[in-house]
Design goal:
Blueprint (H helix, E strand, L loop, with lengths): L2 E3 L10 H6 L3 E3 L6 H19 L7 E5 L3 H12 L3 E5 L1 H5 L8 H5 L3 E4 L17 H6 L4 E5 L8 H9 L3 E5 L10 H6 L2 E2 L8 H19 L14 E4 L6 H10 L1 H9 L6 H13 L10 E4 L6 H5 L2 E2 L3
């Protein structure tokens, strides 16, 4: 083996020091599915707020990690009129302005995690959300994780939820695929680590690794030519809430939430196998720009979020 490529953003599943010590070139695909993950995060937040009886536009969100995904989540929330601030110590060290402290981000009504899983360096993220951080969150706040499961201390989160302090919407789980069924039952929204699983994201990641391989192999750059991607259509003219209808169609969070909850009574082995199965059998999905929406205002929120809205 001389080249290893992963079409994922994270690299915690690669033994990078070993690869480099053995002269093996490696690459990942940072940002390939950032739109997909950000849009899915918005759909999770929207569903959680509905279930918790919260009006999203009246809440304040704190983004922890304003990288490729976090910056997009911040933009999407602001598009809907949500006040969204961001905390990112490495960016702050690099001189990026407009960031807030972790304490201020944790003090928001919604706290979204968009950080890599790291164990070393000045800002390790392994278990970064523990009892002290959870205690800083206001009562009834919502913690959203579409980053990596083990950036959260599972027992501490479960305790905070069980005593009624906070709520959680989780796509990434501590210890996955071996989930704690008690945590699964207690979450407001539960999905199987699929936020970045759109067809667009997979194509982008594959292309990025292909380009890196060609560069390593000394091959000339290639032009990206793909068959036309399937466009999807949705008429929201009869929907009580067009935004709800569009988010459910584009991300189908309620569907996967129901499938996850059906696993809650299983033994640990069956639960882990079911979690993996839901990931492997994930249905076809397009990012917002791959949808043609009809039956709503072409200058409304759906167009602002990136959907292609056809005039009435």
């Amino acid at each position: 083996v001389r080249f290893v490529g992963t079409t994922a953003i994270g690299t915690d599943h690669l033994d990078i020091p070993w690869l480099e010590a053995n002269g093996i070139r490696w690459c990942n695909a940072p940002g390939c599915n950032a739109d997909s993950a950000a849009q899915y995060t918005l759909a999770m937040i929207w569903l959680a707020c509905q279930r918790l009886g919260k009006e999203l536009t009246g809440l304040k969100a704190g983004i922890i990690g304003r990288g490729n995904v976090g910056s997009r989540v911040q933009k999407l929330l602001r598009t809907l009129g949500v006040q969204a601030v961001a905390n990112d110590p490495p960016l702050a060290d690099a001189g990026v302005s407009g960031l807030v402290s972790q304490a201020e981000a944790l003090g928001c009504d919604i706290v979204c995690l968009h950080v890599p899983l790291t164990r070393a360096g000045p800002y390790p993220t392994l278990g970064m959300i523990g009892p002290d951080q959870l205690e800083q969150m206001p009562n009834s706040a919502l913690l959203v994780n579409t980053a990596r499961g083990n950036v959260i201390d599972g027992p501490s989160l479960l305790a905070a939820i069980e005593n009624g302090r906070i709520h959680a919407a989780l796509d990434c789980w501590p210890g996955e695929p071996e989930l704690d069924p008690r945590l699964l039952k207690r979450t407001a929204v539960a999905t199987p680590h699929v936020a970045g699983y759109s067809d667009d994201g997979k194509r982008n990641g594959t292309w990025m690794v292909y380009e890196a391989f060609r560069d390593w192999a000394g091959l000339p750059p290639a032009e990206r030519e793909e068959p036309g991607q399937q466009r999807l259509e949705l008429d929201v003219s009869r929907a009580d809430c067009p935004l709800t209808a569009a988010l459910e169609a584009a991300c189908f969070v309620p569907q996967h939430d129901a499938e996850m909850r059906a696993l809650a009574g299983s033994d640990s082995a069956t639960l882990a196998a079911g979690f993996d199965r839901l990931r492997k059998q994930y249905p076809f999905r397009r990012d917002f720009h791959g949808w043609d929406i009809s039956g709503c205002d072409s200058h409304g929120p759906l167009a602002a979020l990136g959907f292609t809205v056809r005039s009435r």
